[in-house]
Amino acid sequence: MGNDILIIAEEREGNLRKVSFELVTVANEIAQGLGGSVSALVLGHNVAACADALAKTGVAKVYLADSPAMQFFVPELFTAVVADVIGQAQPAVILLPATGFGKELGARVGARLDLGVATDCIGYAVENGTLVLKRPVYAGKAMATVKAKALPVMVSIRPNIFPPAPAEGASASIEPVEVKEVPARAKVVEKVKKEAVAVDLAEAKIVVSGGRGAKSTEGFVPIRELADILGAAVGASRAAVDAGWIDYSTQVGQTGKTVAPQLYIALGISGAIQHLAGMSSSKVIVAVNKDPDAPIFKAADYGIVADMFDVLPVLKEEFKKVLAEK
Fold it and tell me: Which range among 11-15, 42-46, 207-211 shows the weakest confidence by mean pLDDT?
């Protein structure tokens, strides 16, 4: 084992997710501390363009596992390929995104290779030749500092925390990886897409979320309108999702998605600890709620005690004015 860093990139429909470039930023800084180099692995089908893009970020090498068998995420196959590349590259640190893809893959690979796995990390440092990581615990109520007992270690990084590395440099070498047939317990026979959303919730710079205060499906109409004005993603609390007012894919929280946008606007959301766990890493939090004692105000940078339906028209008009001046 050396001191190198291996990134496991995430691809979706022929494009790398932004978090893959964020992992390059993290990897470069860790590599400076350990004195190693950075390589990356791209997995999928017809993903050569993804490998090309990643090769221009300053990494030393890109491993490319491209096969029709990897068109869809097959846990057994992806695990086997990643384990083989780790065996070949002998990295000290393996970085993955803290997404559904990274969480399942990290757990499986960690179990197969008997590696430690630190999940959903938002901070890191190299101290005395090992990796020290920071990650939220107890639904975001506390921050844990964990140290890798031994290297290699697998680490998943929360999206939208670190800046993405630009793909503007010279192209690194791309090494094809053999994809061997692996028996799978399940087979994907069809993939049915939900209605496309304009902005991906997990990677959005701005998120506008509605909660119980929205009162109905119709209550999310002005929330979507505000999101459209800002070029933002639409989120929701569990209460709104459970009520059937909006799709589960928009749920932010412990049992939904974790987001870390530059701006998070919470409309009619009380701020249960489960919801705060999913958005407390936001850079700026604006809360609108009728209840002055709502827990969301303790997490908010700016708070408005009012009915969200009275505030929304004002917000929309003011944001339009500000954006028109740019």
Answer: 11-15
